[in-house]
Every structure is written in structure tokens, then in C-alpha cells.
Amino acid sequence: MTTERVEIAVVGSGRAALNVLSRLSEKSLRRCVVIDPSGSWLHAFARTQLRTGTTHLRSTATQVPFDSACGLERYVEMTGKTREIYRTSDGFTGIPSVRVFAEYCAKTISERFGNTRLVRGAVVDARWCGADSEEVQAALKADDNNTELMCFGAMLLTLDTGKRVLSARCVWTPKFSSPMVPSWVFDAKDSYAKAHAEYDGQGTECGIMCARDIDVSLENRVRDKCVLVIGGGMTAATLALSAHSRGAKAVTLMCRKKIVVSEFECDVKYFGSKGLREFHACDDAQLRSKRLESYKSRASVNEHTHRRLRETESNTEADEDCVLRIMEQRVVIDATWNQKESKWRVRMKPTDEARVLFEATMHRMYRDEGIEPSAAALAEFEREVTSAHDEIWLACGEVVDLEKDSALQTLCQTTQVKIAGGFPLLDEEDFEDEHQQGVKAAAGGGGGCRWPGTSMYVLGAYASLTIGPGADLPVGHRLAAKQLVDAMKRHQMMILKKQNPYQRIADLSSAERTPERGESFNRFKRLPPELSDKGLIDIEDLLGGEKLELIELGQYEFYEEDLLADIRLKLPEPIQKSDVYVCFESRALEMWAFGKTRAYRFYIRKLYKEVMVDKCSYKVFPSKNRITLKIQKFSNHYWRYLKG
């Protein structure tokens, strides 16, 4: 089995990969290899647009996979193809057609990456090889130009072709995702299997299929068929429009909510650090995963697609041979295969939300116009509807799950990576600042999106716990690529200085902290939880029988700024750092300070809200007779009180 040694290996040839490549130097590009199953650029992206029949992109013309955000707009102006950009009415940059986007990308790739080597193959295993591994030692002995950055380790990639690539640095862009499938689908397939003994319940021959299994570009794929599309996002809307334009007899677009119109798949406030301040301040992977889920926007379509939907629906109302219907706020009760008709019989009803809105409308009409609520109208509205369809297309979104990605299983098992919500918690690095020494880079703020303890950098969906809900969108690709390339440059300089940039730093929660970062528990014993009314620290153990006068500190100054809050305590005598003991908990804190003859205590049994224990700290100012307790809040909302 041959092993090729390279300086940089980029896994994937899509938009995320191009964002990175466009920011690399010419020298790095010559030493770079791109690995993709298709062996061509943007193949998976292009196939998706072709299969679904997409005419215009969701992202704006500035969200191109290259370092220059204005490149596509300049290309359109130079070639006179301004009609290929659909201008929205709300002032946002227009959205490009798939055709002009493909032309621009092909032109830019041929000009800039013509000499970049593209290898055909799928990565089936990724493994980190440390500095002492046989692979790295053999590479260092070879004295190759591509191995000078391998002195602290390298990534070993195994392809399905049998080839192996040892890369000093690796950029990973693919993801593993599964389509979300409604629960009624399983019973529906069982009904089909009863009529077709050979059906195993897994294939698409039954007519129920997910968006990734549909290809409307095939000739006569949907002609004269009745199609039901389930979903309320761009994919569902695009499939419905494509089926209608390609000769389907009837197309029904059904969604649980009302169709939402938005130019972006994610709230724009999450495209920058300001909107993600609370997200970045959280160190806990599980909590960050929950916040990520709460930040995600519901399915939506852009203005261009929504206008096409409504125009097509209105134009086909009088045309019984080719109908597009939009059914909002409806859910499927069940679907049963009718062998006699060779069709799916689907029962659906209004959602509870739709019923509430209908009743509210009747009440408003009674209040404003005096029209009595009609029980018959309500009964008609709630009536179940049954319709027949040849095929059912599911466009209900997808679930990303790293733990099911077979290519990264070895890496997950051999490195100390935390996984939350199907996403890895990537390394966030310390950097030196002249004003704040040793400050940790906020997530998405320079951490480099690096897999813990390795030289593998991650872009796309797997970087969601670092970049935020926009990680798998073009804007997230741009943000992550810039940080990634900057981090790679810093790491290269560190390696040349014989410093290991990949060395894992213990978590603050388990590492011994300095007095400025809080106390490690080996300096004092803690009282058991059942004695929390007395305190957190075992004072008897600290005093060791010494008798000191106990002074309870009841006065303090409380200052808040954004996520930080300071509790300033004034003492009657100077206290040294070594004589101060502080214990933080999520909803409590206790401080002991020992003077010559007195012991000063400040204890809050219950704080107003929870704090981030790992980011709480304190400072001692002996010359000013002052101690400042610094607590990190979970939000920038001002506390009404210090005590809960």
C-alpha cells in the first residue's frame, strides 16, 4: 500500500474547500492535494442543483466560495449578464442564477487552481499519527519538502482506492447527515410491503422518497404523475416547482406551518460575534449544543421562490390538467397503499395551530362585524381530507451526526474529543494580548476550528459548535476559512520555532487553577452538600485548630458589564494572595481571607442566576486592602440582585 506525503490535504472539493484554497499562498497550493469521490470541482453541489431543478441559489451574489466577495458581481457586469441576478425588494444583494454561478466558478477555478492536484477517491479512515509514530518517523527520514511540518505529527488518510495520504495538515469539509423522516412513513411502507412481498422497506420503488433520492432532471421523470411534496423550506418549494414545470399532472406542497419568507436560512444576527456572544461564552459542549438548536431558524423560502410559488398556484387554478396546490398548516395522519389504484391514499388534517387561528378569526368577525361563529364552518375546516398520489417526496430537513460518520470513527476513538448533538467540540486556543495575557479565544474568534490534539481543521457542519448555526452556510464557510488559514499560518510559525501547536491543554474545569483563575480543590476540603447552609469550604480544616476572630463581610460593591460582573470587597487590613481561598459553584460562592488575628468570610448561598464556574476568578489587591470576585454570567441581561 503506497503512502503519499503532502503538506496540505483538503478533503472535499465543494464550496467550503474552495473558500480555504482561495486564501492559501501559491506555494501552499503547489504542495496541496484535494481529495473528492468525484474527482472534479463542485460535483456534489452541482448534482444537487441539477437533481432538484434549482434555477437560482438561496445565497446572495456576494456569498461566493472565493476570497473576493465582489467577484461574481464584477463578472456579471463585465459579461453583460445582469439579468442572471434576481434583485430582491428589501435592499439585499441579488441572488444569482445557477447558470451564471456555475460559469463564474468554472472560470475562477481554471484560472486559480488549474495546477492544484485533484485526486479521485473517498476517505474511508482518518487517523492521527503522533511524532513518534512509524509513519511520521519514516517521513522525517525521507527529508522531503512536504514533511518539514510533520515533526509534531500528521494526519493519515486512507482512501477507498487503497491509496494512503500522510498530510502535515488536513482540512476536512464533508459531513454525515441523515434525512428526517416523519413517523407515519414507516407504517406507510409496511402497507406497501404487504402488497409487494419482495419489498424490504428500504428502497424508493414504493414511491416514498427523500429529497436526496429524487432526480427531476431525468426525462419524463414526473410527467403525468400526482406528486405530494412534504416540507416548508427551499428544497420542498423547489421540488414542487420543478415537478410542475416538468409535466406533473398535479403537485401538492404541504407543510405544518405557514410558509415563511426570508432571504437567509439563518437569522443574520448569528453571522457575527455580537449575536453569538452568549454562545461563545459557554464552555460546556452540551449546553452549547442546546443553544445551537434554539438558534436555528425554521424552514423558509426566499422572496424569489415564494413569488414563483404563488404565481404558479394562481395561474393553475383554472387549469385542471396541471395543478399546483399549497396546503399550509396541515399534517399527514397516515398514508396507505391502494393496490387497486396503484396510488397512495393520504389522509391529512389541519394542525392545532391552524384550528386556533380559525377560531380566532371567527371571534374577530363576531366582535367587529357581528357575524355569529358557525359550528358548521368549524366542522368543515376540521374535516379530514383524503387524496391520491403516485409519489410522496419528503423534504423535511436533515440531521448531522458525527458519531455515524464511519470515516472519522478511528479519530473519535483515539483523540479526546467531546461530541454534543452530533457535533465535535473543536479546540479553542490561548493567545497573548498586551492588555489581557493568556485570554482564551472565543469560539469563532480565532480558534482555528481544529480537531483537538491534531492538525486537522474542520469546516462546514461539523464546525457548528465553534462557528454557530451558520457554519454550513456560505457565510459560515467564509468566516471559518479565514480563521482556519490564519491559524494554519500561526501554527506553521510555531512549528518552525520547534513549538508544538497541537498539544492538548487540560480543560480549565479539571486543571489546577492559579489564584487569578479560581481555586483548585486540593488547597482546601469542601463541605458535603448537605451542609451547604454552613458554607462550601471546610474552614476547620484550613485553620488547623488556630483561633481567629470571625468577621462576616456584609458590605460589597457590585458592578456589571455585559457578561462580566465584579464583586468588590473592602477589608480593614492587607491580605496576601496565599491567604485567600475562594470556591465557586453554579449558584453559590464563598471566600475566606485570613489576616493576622481575623478571618474574613463572604458567602452567598444562592446567587441570583447561574454562573459559568470555569470562567469565574478573583484578584487580590494587598496594597488597596481589596479583593475582587469576578463572575461570568450566561447572558448579558443585568441582574436585579446579587442574591437569589
Architecture blueprint of SSEs:
Blueprint: E1 3-11, H1 15-21, H2 26-30, E2 32-36, H3 43-52, H4 71-79, E3 85-86, E4 95-96, H5 98-112, E5 117-120, E6 123-129, H6 134-142, E7 154-159, E8 164-172, E9 177-179, H7 184-195, E10 208-210, E11 226-230, H8 234-245, E12 250-254, H9 277-281, H10 285-295, H11 303-315, E13 323-327, E14 330-338, E15 343-350, H12 352-369, H13 375-382, E16 385-389, E17 391-394, E18 398-400, H14 409-414, E19 419-420, E20 423-424, E21 430-431, E22 439-440, E23 456-458, H15 464-467, H16 474-496, H17 539-543, E24 549-552, E25 557-561, E26 564-570, E27 580-585, E28 588-594, E29 598-604, E30 617-621, E31 626-632
Parallel strand pairs: 1-2, 1-8, 2-5, 8-23, 10-17, 11-12, 11-17, 12-13, 24-29
Antiparallel strand pairs: 3-4, 6-7, 7-8, 9-18, 14-15, 15-16, 19-20, 21-22, 25-26, 26-31, 27-28, 28-29, 30-31
Helix pairs in contact: 1-16, 8-11
